[in-house]
């Protein structure tokens, strides 16, 4: 049995009410710069409309918390279960994922009302929360934080499809990252423990904490920069099949990659489409919006390699390890697979992570779009190796001499 | 040389100002029931967002009337030429058709402002319209009327993709069509003239008026009804390859057709998704939302055939020929090809019709969505044989005994 | 009722035996240069393996002649009905068309034995042929002649997929066509009759003979040459969207057309892959392997147009009309549709032509690959507008002054 | 630097000559039951024609051994480098993989001659083989053995596309596998070494031998049987999304899986298409032709899991571990990734394995189609998780209590 772990002593409901309010408000703040039109479209099957993110996270609380636990709760709209279930087979049939952009109704303001309805009911529930339901509240909040990040990456992609390249937020501030040449930190050989083991919240896929064997290696103290990437490009990186995985080269050719996603070549140099709109590319900033294929080819070109997720997690505790979080998710050379002894959570939320453990590579760390405090060193993000629309970045490693 | 023909004596500008205002207002009235979200989505590459229809028809006046003819005209937004050009190679590059649903910006209200800006400038131009520009004004209005129909068919398709099946207009009134068994009108053999020849407006594809040979035949005085179609279905019409064209049977199998588009089987019988929402299927009403493939298979099942467009046009003048317009476009067995001696219009608008004269079948008449007064017996509508989202209907014919 | 029409007086069986033998032998002669491997592959869904052509034409005699008419006939192999039925729904289920290249078994020599088995039985049947079966024998032979042409076009396409570009027949002789600038023949306005009306064989789609109205025009006395086509190319024909139908331009872009099919640019000029292998392009020879889209764009570039099939058929009787047959099938601007009063043949062979009367354009004449004596002026060949692997050519027309 | 490791003492050429002859002869023996037609077709992009396998393995010796090492060697045909290079970017451009079935020329007998030509030259080279070339000879033989297995799996797939379901070899003998309920062998927790470390041949992807941490578990002593699989099917295994990975369920639905590949439901029970033709399914025999998705779903249904490749390799040394090889490749829950410290071979053969280390899952053991002596416990086979046409099987594992 693998119940969701709680943060703090069970039974203390006070902090969770504040936390609930804060997380829910943050979602609305993220959606605030978007018109109803902006919130409605789906620019590719992998992305979802902002309105859908707002409704789906609400459906999560309604379905897994309110209906089972709040006596007398009345659903906001019976039909929303079909519309806003993402992928839970146990929760019944659902609207096809690639069709999420067809939902002009309910309108954005109905989703606002849905959120208010559920928030009111949740307030009632939280006032007298059964201790066994508390982990699910925490999961609902963690889930909503994950969708906050997706809301941002998905709207960036959606706006990028518009020839006008409108800004999500013209005042957008980029985070500051470590700069200068990377130093390589030594990671010694031996048995190490990874995975989540403490009392705070963690996703089931981070557990159980377990031993693993680390082969000695060295890992960079910072991320690869745009300047580094320009050197790769100038050296023919996107035209040299010998640098690439076979599938990566095929993707590069099929999709016509010549630079990271969201880069635009203009007469006076490279620009980058950011949440703040189209801006001159900052050479010193870490590269982002790269696929695993590109990251891996770059590493080969540089005479290095990607770290494994085990190496990354152990190294994250080393002094000098910078920008673990807050800039970009860092591709590793680990496939997203279950840890030894992995058990999905009990019940319907058991579908949360487990059924995606194939065809994906692990990213570690956290990005500028990750809600502050959401991630941790044991956190496992995952995407297919061709995905580029996330704030994905790259930290190099190399074998010990 | 084939200039656009004008309605009424050249130089008389008074009526055109009123007509301009009426047509433009009708577009806005059609869009009025739609939220900005509704107006933004594109449910398939063949359809366009309502907002796009509103902007594109405006772009037509700006590009072909204001810029060449109104001294000092300032474009509303330089970038709209790229966004709202549909397919005019001569007017420069344009946004890819299947991506029209990505345009959350400009927002709907900016399109409203664009329309007002162009309307004001057009009012100025119309006050002192050069006679040679007048035909283009008329074309712009005819063009906008065509898009009014598309706005309706496209939004019906878009709303049909929503599992909630929202109504475009809950008070929608269906037109009344002739009912009862069809009588067949005799069309005698001989030379006849078809095509547009008078002084009123017509599209270039309706010209020149020319002689054609009519083989004697008989043509139904009314349209095939839903009851007729239910009999076809009950007799296995959708499961009998021998009734179908080879390509039609392949389309039927590939798309899983079992009834016309927008029909929904419910426990207590067939329903139809209409602009008024999901309503019980009216048995006596003419069938609609059928492809040419289905219409042709039905005719074979009934021991009849489709009329040619020449037969249709000549027969439309016979006494007793009912529902030529106002209900549904009527598939013919004529491919959309140039008339003998056809010349496209001069200039950029020469791309209006001519470059689509392949892979399409002609429909005649007019539908409930066609603006009153827009069509005429010589009018040639055209769609690929698999198209079903228009208000397409069926009138039978048969060879003379 | 529309029975297949016979050639010569009914009941006279002597000539048909010789004709049967000659047609059947010609097929085997055409296949003779091909190895069993060559005969087995299918290079695209529209083409069929040579072995399949040999077997399918044999299946036609077995199915429509021997089984119904020859008492005691024993099928060569019960399973061949499934394998070698092309598209006759009435003759039962069949192997999927795009999978014909998977039939390594039966081997080529089994097909040879199949042919011998059916030929022996046919000899027996022809000795005492019921008069009512005779039209079907003639149809079987006409059918086999059609497949002889396809065998050649299909193997040319198959060999063209091999980087070695092997010759079908290194001694292949190209036909000699009229050369020099085209003269335009006058076709007067008025009622004309077209379609097959005599006692010789014709396909059902050529009937009934009927009146049509010809608008006066002028039609070229010879075909467009490779030199003409090079001028079109040099003038940017393949890079000028204004010359093309909208669908044609899309096809040109999607498939990367820059010249007719089977043209290869080499350092010292254009070469053409022919049944004789890769040979220098003959400038004076008629252009071939062009789609309708290309033909139509060329005509627009030349300030001309394509003739209709009615114009072509009437003009073919004019003095001076050269190369009607023997060089290349000539695209017309007529869609392949039923003639007024068209009735498919009775019985299963009613599927022969009728169910393809959509999405295709008519070609007239006959090509170098058409068996001598097979075609006639009323003959209607048909292919989709994007098809290029046939020996398709182009004759221009223009409106009367 | 990671040179290919040799078997036996360097310099001793006698055994390699015999081994060369034996391997090469075995390929020809495997192709012997196939006609030239059988050898020519490609039934899907992932499979290759038998003739191509025969030529490509020959090209390997010509390209990597003869041209660099045998003075005066004359290529059999200059053009074969283009035709029979599989994926070596360093060896120049090549024929597109999905087009391998288009190569009716060179004919099968020319490939036979090519093999003889290369064999003669190799005999000459082997008489005085430079010691540094010897590892490449061994690699060439190992490579050919791999293609021997593919030749069999690919031809089984090709023949399965033929409605006649012809047998590759009617006298085909199935291997005998362990039967009866599985016992679970204990694997203790601790550091273990895996990977190839001895002096015999191994592929670069098996190296370096390295330490890994094994979490204690239990692993079945035999493979899952057809009877087991029938129980899974009877319990709705193919209709229960909760048992499947999300991508697996999508594949199951898209491809309509209801049983392993090559199973046919007949009136009197299940049959299996084998190299010996269609035969009654043996309940006691191990299941095969299953994808990773199916294997993983089965394991979940059974309350077990797949072993990792590390567990498999360590367990293979346990007493009682049966059918490691000779029956079916066994899916593991390990992604195909480089071992810590992995270095591809030097030179062009560095592309052999390394560039496929993404999007694939590891299979361990060996199958009935694997040449005897070819595989070893450290051997890493790999295929995408949806692949079913290999002789892929399943051994279960479970966590220690
Ligand atoms: Fe979610
Ligand atoms: Fe338009
Ligand atoms: Fe045929
Ligand atoms: Fe190979």
UniProtKB/TrEMBL annotation, chains A, B, C, D:
**Gene3D superfamilies referenced in this protein's UniProt entry, alphabetically:** paralog of FGE (formylglycine-generating enzyme) (3.90.1580.10)
Where in the numbering of this chain does the Sulfatase-modifying factor enzyme-like domain appear?
184-317
Q: Which Pfam families match?
A: DinB_2 (PF12867), FGE-sulfatase (PF03781)
Query: Cross-referenced PANTHER family, in alphabetical order?
Result: HERCYNINE OXYGENASE, SULFATASE MODIFYING FACTOR 1, 2
* Domain DinB-like: residue ranges: 20-135
Question: So which domain of life are we looking at?
Answer: Bacteria
Q: What is this protein called?
A: Ergothioneine biosynthesis protein EgtB
């Amino acid at each position: 049995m693998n119940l969701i772990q709680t943060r703090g002593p069970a039974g203390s409901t006070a902090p969770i009410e504040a936390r609930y309010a804060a997380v829910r408000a943050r979602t609305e703040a993220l959606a605030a710069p978007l018109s109803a039109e902006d919130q409605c479209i789906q620019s590719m099957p992998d992305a979802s409309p902002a309105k859908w993110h707002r409704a789906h996270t609400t459906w999560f609380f309604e379905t897994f918390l309110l209906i089972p636990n709040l006596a007398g709760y009345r659903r906001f709209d019976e039909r929303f279960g079909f519309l806003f279930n993402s992928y839970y087979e146990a929760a019944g049939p659902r609207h096809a994922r690639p069709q999420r952009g067809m939902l002009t109704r309910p309108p954005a303001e109905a989703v606002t009302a849905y959120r208010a309805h559920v928030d009111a009911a949740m307030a009632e529930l939280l006032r007298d929360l059964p201790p066994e339901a508390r982990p699910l509240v925490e999961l609902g909040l963690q889930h909503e934080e994950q969708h906050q990040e997706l809301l941002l990456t998905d709207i960036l992609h959606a706006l990028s499809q518009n020839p006008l390249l409108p800004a999500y937020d013209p005042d957008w501030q980029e985070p500051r990252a470590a700069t200068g040449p990377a130093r390589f930190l030594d990671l010694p050989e031996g048995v190490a423990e990874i995975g989540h083991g403490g009392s705070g919240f963690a996703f089931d896929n981070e557990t159980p904490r377990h031993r693993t064997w680390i082969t000695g290696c060295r890992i960079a103290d910072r991320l690869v920069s745009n300047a580094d990437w320009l050197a790769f490009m100038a050296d023919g990186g996107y035209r040299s099949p010998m640098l690439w995985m076979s599938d990566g080269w095929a993707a590069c050719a099929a999709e016509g990659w010549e630079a990271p996603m969201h880069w635009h070549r203009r007469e006076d140099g490279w620009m980058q489409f950011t949440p703040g709109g189209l801006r001159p590319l900052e050479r010193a900033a870490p590269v982002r919006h790269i696929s695993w294929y590109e990251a891996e080819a770059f590493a080969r070109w540089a005479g290095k390699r990607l770290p494994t997720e085990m190496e990354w997690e152990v190294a994250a505790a080393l002094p000098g390890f910078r920008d673990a979080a807050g800039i970009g998710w860092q591709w590793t050379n680990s496939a997203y697979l279950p840890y030894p002894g992995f058990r999905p959570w009990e019940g319907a939320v058991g579908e949360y992570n487990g059924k995606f453990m194939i065809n994906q590579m692990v990213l570690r760390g956290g990005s500028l779009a990750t809600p502050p405090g959401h991630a941790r060193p044991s956190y496992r993000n995952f995407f297919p190796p061709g995905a580029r629309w996330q704030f994905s970045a790259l930290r190099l490693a190399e074998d010990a001499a």
